[in-house]
Amino acid sequence: MKVTLLVVGKTVEKHYITAINDYLERTRHYLSFDMEVIPELKNTKSLSMEQQKEKEGELILKSLQPGDVVVLLDEHGKEFRSVEFATWLERKMHTVNKRLVFIIGGPYGFSPAVYAAAQEKISLSKMTFSHQMIRLIFVEQLYRAMTILNNGPYHHE
Length: 157
Fold this sequence. Notes:
alpha/beta, 5-stranded parallel sheet, about 45% helix, globular
């Protein structure tokens, strides 16, 4: 199984880039993991929030491949403790044949078409975080899950 984190817009703050890349590399010791960036839309001032979600949604859907299992990182998704997420991920490792794709949408969320394409939704917190920060939180939790599954010293009960 390959894990992909699909994000809208590149990470711009240097401290997030450094930390995200650190966790990407750490996680790759355990599984095939990549982060793909969908370019931000240009000239969005003339677009409504719904139009922007639709256009981003079209780009997201074009990035998906047949057989992908799509999980949206969404405020209305299921919440896990880290150990529960590790158990959930372990089940996916046994059932997903191709890619497990986690998606962080744009500033206004996901279009109805993206929601329709998703198999699951996960929430990382009831709190709201910037899209830059949530990338770091997710890659850290993915790394944590892998260390839990591999009895590594990173996570302590």
